[in-house]
Specification:
Blueprint (H helix, E strand, L loop, with lengths): L9 H9 L7 E5 L12 E2 L14 E4 L13 E9 L13 E5 L11 E4 L3 E6 L2 E6 L21 E3 L7 H9 L4 E5 L3 E7 L3 E2 L10 E2 L2 H12 L2 E8 L3 H14 L2 E5 L10 H8 L2 E4 L4 E2 L5 E5 L2 E6 L3 H19 L9 E6 L10 E11 L2 E6 L9 H4 L3 E5 L11 E6 L9
Parallel strand pairs: 4-5, 11-14, 11-15, 12-13, 15-19, 17-21, 20-22
Antiparallel strand pairs: 1-10, 2-9, 3-5, 3-6, 4-8, 7-8, 16-18, 18-19, 20-24, 21-22, 21-23, 23-24
The structure holds adenosine monophosphate and magnesium ion.
């Protein structure tokens, strides 16, 4: 007799996955290899930035008081007693009416309290002495870049789990992280099941299709920040699939299989979970596509049985695998961003399950509009390439009409073609 599966809601299913105790670990990598990794610790300023008062301009460090009487008609003159560049500390302390020529980034000399920009003075030599003439009053503190003005010692600047961007790398370098503690990339094994599957380089033959799920899942795993390990494709044969899954679980903590998870004669994953003695968290979710998505746990290892249908496979990964991988990478934001958009097309067909329609968003006059990117079927592969969001249409009997406001899950950041 065919097994009857009881669907749980998407929310319940995600909560069940997130209740698993799969956690991440930390390792050190050289700063230059840290791009895109997730920080393993809070990044805290261990000193003030800048660490000393410095000049933001090329100019002259002066005592502001010397200029208080200066104006266009009666300029004052200061003697330049020294010149310092960035990285050099002044060796003299200026007396009254003395100045130090200073370059951007050089520390403000002791005894001075303002900088006047190069463009605002006139340089001259009188009696073999270097002088500057100033025609305006300069205030104390003018043009100083003060110690700690950028950040103060002890400030937490970037939280653990944040992705390392070029800007974060700049901070890591600022605080001396030649080596960076980062989250270890979870290794995710990937099997494609299906006797009909060909490799991309193979020519099509009767009844066969190319395996598109594995490269797609590899891409999704990489975009999360984890490490995909493609283990190959498996024919629909119980013994082969079982021993391959068993072997794979010796090497990886997370195993994603695509296909064979439904109730067809050659869908062996359910029997594999049973023979392994794995705990099946759910094997039916109230969603379209991907209702057969199954998640199981065995000895602390996670098994994601995604549908073979490309759209269903994609959605299954996004909803259930992505968040727990993100959490293992210490991310404080493991879920996709939610938004709202205005439908540009009707969705007349009611469905008892929540639908995740692969969509593309466009913004016009501050409003987000959304339209499907292709055939709204779980077997569709072409709807995936252009999709940058899922329109989330809750189950029920209601029709959705163009101009309805719907929930969105945003899949990625986009650039603009306009300047
Ligand atoms: P299954 O989940 O195994 O019942 O497969 C459902 C549908 O997805 C079938 O039409 C399969 O041929 C197709 N399919 C399964 N695996 C893949 C794959 N790796 N790439 C592309 N299509 C697939
Ligand atoms: Mg199959």
């Amino acid at each position: 007799m065919m097994e009857r599966r009881k669907p749980i809601t998407v929310q319940e299913a995600i909560e069940k996955v997130m209740a698993l105790s799969y956690e991440g670990a930390t390792e050190m990598v050289p700063l230059e290899d840290s791009d895109g990794r997730h920080l393993g610790v809070d990044l805290k300023a261990d000193h003030d930035v800048p660490p000393f008062d410095r000049s933001p301009y090329d100019g002259f460090a002066i005592k502001a008081e010397d200029t208080y009487e200066a104006n266009k008609d009666s300029p004052i003159k200061l003697e330049v007693i020294e010149e310092i560049g960035a990285g050099t500390v002044a060796s003299k302390v200026p007396e009254k009416n003395e100045a130090v020529r200073i370059m951007t980034g050089a520390p403000i000399p002791e005894g001075t309290n303002a900088v006047i920009m190069l463009e605002l003075v006139q340089e001259m030599i009188e009696d073999g002495k270097k002088l500057i003439q100033i025609k305006r009053k300069v205030n104390r503190g003018d043009n100083l870049s003060l110690r700690g003005e950028d950040t103060k010692e002890g400030t937490v600047l970037i939280q653990r789990g944040s992705r390392i961007t070029p800007g974060v790398k700049a901070l890591l370098a600022t605080f001396g992280y030649a080596n960076v503690p980062v989250a270890v990339k979870p290794e995710v094994g990937i099997f494609a099941t299906g006797t009909e599957l060909l490799d991309p380089e193979e020519a099509l033959e009767a009844g066969k299709i190319r395996n598109s799920n594995s490269p797609m899942i590899e891409g999704q795993v990489k975009s999360v920040g984890a490490k995909p390990i493609y283990l190959g494709k498996l024919d629909d044969d119980f013994e082969t699939c079982f021993s391959s899954v068993q072997e794979a679980l010796k090497k990886v903590d997370i195993l994603i299989t695509t296909g064979g998870v439904s109730v067809g004669d050659y869908d062996y994953l359910p029997a594999i979970y049973e023979k392994l003695g794995a705990t099946v968290l759910f094997n039916k979710v109230g969603m379209r596509p991907g209702s057969v998505t199954t998640v199981a746990e065995w000895n602390g290892k996670l098994l994601f049985g995604l549908s073979g249908n490309p759209s269903a496979c994609f959605v299954g990964f996004e909803l259930f695998a992505r968040p727990i991988l993100k959490r293992a990478l210490f991310s404080k934001a493991p879920y996709r961003l939610q938004s709202k958009g205005i439908l540009l097309t009707d969705f007349p067909k009611p469905n008892p399950f929540t639908r995740f329609v692969r969509c593309r968003t466009e913004e016009r006059e501050g409003r987000i509009y959304v339209k499907p990117t292709g055939l709204d079927k779980s077997g569709s592969v072409t709807s995936l390439a252009e999709a940058n969001a899922f329109a989330v249409l809750p189950g029920g009997t209601r029709d959705f009409k163009a101009s309805d406001l719907v929930d969105l899950l945003v899949l990625r950041d986009e650039g603009s073609e306009y300047l």
